[in-house]
Amino acid sequence: MPETQLSIQARWGRLSRGVCRESPQWAIRCSTTRSKQISECTPYITDITSRVIAQGLPDGVCLNVNFPAKVKIEGMKVVRAARSRWTEEYQEYLDPHGKPFFWLTGRLLNEEPESTDTDLYWLDRNYATVVPAYADRNATPEIIPVSNILGI
């Protein structure tokens, strides 16, 4: 569903704004609406939440937490985000007035499926994943090299 990609972007915006306000931030995604599967996530959510509230997070860091869908969770790993991309496929729909519109859909392609230190590797193996991330996504060390490339 395209909702996944859009929700990640929306969550990231909210997370980074919160971190800029010096408030601990974490986003949690449980890929289900079934109460039995949500209850499988609950102990992990409770543990993460209580620990972050009690101990805080390093300055400028937020957490992206994901749970595998439709399975018993085997455990939790703190890892990096996998290099991945969404395929660009479009689905045509009709709005309530009968006018066509297109929705970006597709599949998430893991560009490093054998890397054991990534979220997608462990999600595929039924583990919850925690990815610490910095809210500041500026490539500050690259300002001079990019300025040189652009002749500025």
The gyration radius over C-alpha positions equals 18 Å
Number of strands: 8
Give, in order, the helices and strands: HEHEEEEEEHEH
Specify the number of helices: 4
Biggest sheet strand line-up:
1-2-8-3
- Main sheet overview: 4 strands, mixed
**What does the average pLDDT come to?**
78
Low confidence ranges: 1-10
Could you please describe the fold and organization of this structure?
The chain has 152 residues and is of the alpha/beta class. The protein has helices at residues 3-20, 35-55, 119-123, 143-150; strands at 25-30, 61-67, 76-78, 84-86, 89-94, 100-105, 108-110, 128-134. It is extended and about 50 Å long.
Question: Layout of SSEs?
Answer:
Elements: H1 3-20, E1 25-30, H2 35-55, E2 61-67, E3 76-78, E4 84-86, E5 89-94, E6 100-105, E7 108-110, H3 119-123, E8 128-134, H4 143-150
Parallel strand pairs: 1-2, 3-8
Antiparallel strand pairs: 2-8, 4-7, 5-6
Summarize the structure.
This protein has 152 residues and is of the alpha/beta class. The protein contains four helices and eight strands. The chain is extended, with a radius of gyration of 18 Å.
Key terms:
4-stranded mixed sheet; alpha/beta; 34% helix; single chain; 152 residues; disordered N terminus; extended; 4 helices; two-stranded antiparallel ribbon
